[in-house]
Amino acid sequence: MLYWLSEFSGDFAVLNLFRYLTFRTGGAVVTAMIIAFVCGPAIIRWLKSRQENGQPIREDGPQSHILTKQGTPTMGGMMMLLAIAVSTLLWADLSNAYVWAVLAVTMGFGAIGFADDYLKVTKRHSGGLPGRVKLIAEAAIAVAVAVWIVNTTTDINPTGLAFPFFKDLLIDLGWFYIPFAAFIIVGASNSVNLTDGLDGLAIVPVMICAGVFLVISYLIGNAFFAEYLQVHFVRGTGELTVFCGTIIGAGLGFLWFNAPPAMVFMGDTGSLAMGGALGAVSVVTKHEIVLGIAGGLFVLETVSVIVQVVSFKLTGRRVFRMAPLHHHFEQKGWAEPTIVIRFWIIACILAIVSLSTLKLR
Asked: Is residue 269 included in any domain, yes or no?
């Protein structure tokens, strides 16, 4: 919205600032953070008034959680969705179709997560929406947005899959790209959801990953930088720099209330939305595989669950003491802050590795 003020830069030179992605991204970060800070306490109070006993704690989870996390409200992702939506609409170029595509995924997955959290709270059971219903809803949104992205992309093969470390390699997947892109979006969403199990554990890696794609979006959306780095130029993706900035700002504001001991949990409302947003940005920027590196922590958590389930069904034995992986370390006696901070360190290392793929071609 504010981008349109640049049209009056001929009369007021200072308004030319709104043309620059860097200025608008900085404004988006600060705006989203302030919205989360200001609205956070009111949202938490409202959630507490509606959730007498807080989020239902899994009976099969760590027993310590029953004592330490009982009564903490969930659906805190609402403050992030509010901050991201308002900040994006305020600072992004709303004529850019990619902005609307990633925003649709974020809000759509957030709505699914909200329904899931609402059922958990009202029914006082950790089950929520049936898994099949949730997956079908996610897939429907992801497929629709994937088709939207493919029809929007023009300067590069819209159904091509790029590989890191190879400057010219772009494999055309044809119409198979649609289910592939949908799988990336849905997979990223549920991976973040699985990681969200300890105070502050998921939101910081989400911000780190958003920071990686902030850089990627800016570089590949700029023809000069894309040519210099020998990466595929995708016109219009630079505007997603602003969107990624809103995730970082909203995440910082949410972390203020989610830092141990958490005053609120993001719930599926936040985790499904944040994961879906990252997945959608990776699809638009043609860096789906890099998302697997930058979000390697989420992948690791997901793989730990898959390995645990498969091993138990085939052999009757568990590979980990408890899945996802962060619960395994809890069962080994690691303190919660130790697990969280060490996982943050892993996320930082993976972010550095993923950014290195931009130059190592």
From this structure: yes
Our count of domains for the chain comes to 1
- Say how far apart CA 318 and CA 272 lie, in whole Å: 27
135-155 b/e (C-beta count within 10 Å ≥ 16 → b)? eebbeebbbbbbebbbebbee
pLDDT digits (tens, 9 = 90+) for 103-120: 999 999 999 999 999 988
Which pLDDT band holds residue 195 (cuts at 50, 70, 90)? very high
Residue whose structure tokens are 């959630």: 47
Residue that wins the pLDDT comparison between 228 and 65: 228
Q: Is the dihedral of CA 212, 361, 146, 306 positive or negative?
A: negative
Name the packing angle between helices 21-50 and 203-220 (round to 10°).
Answer: 150
Angle at 54 between CA 51 and CA 58, to 5 degrees: 135
Residue 188 belongs to domain spanning: 2-356
**By the 8 A CB rule, do 168 and 305 touch?**
no
Q: Is residue 39 part of a domain?
A: yes
Q: Which two tokens stand for residue 184?
A: 């990336």
> Does 361 reside within a domain?
no
- Looking at residue 5, its amino acid is L
Question: In this structure, are strands 160-162 and 170-172 parallel, antiparallel, or unpaired?
Answer: antiparallel
Beta carbons of 22 and 30 less than 8 angstroms apart: no
Q: Is 71 left (phi over 0), alpha (psi -120 to 50) or beta?
A: left
With a CB cutoff of 8 Å and minimum separation 6, the contacts of 60 are none
| Contact assessment for residue 311 and residue 317, using Cβ atoms and an 8 Å cutoff | yes
Max intra-chain CA distance, the chain: 74
62 lies in some domain: yes
Distance of CA 180 to the CA centre of its chain: 18
For residue 67, pLDDT over 60 is answered with no
5-39 pLDDT per residue, tens: 666 666 666 777 888 999 999 999 999 999 999 99
Are 194 and 307 spatial neighbours (Cβ–Cβ below 8 Å)? Answer: no
Quote the tokens at residue 145. Answer: 């947005």
320: amino acid identity, one letter: F
Full-model pTM = 0.93
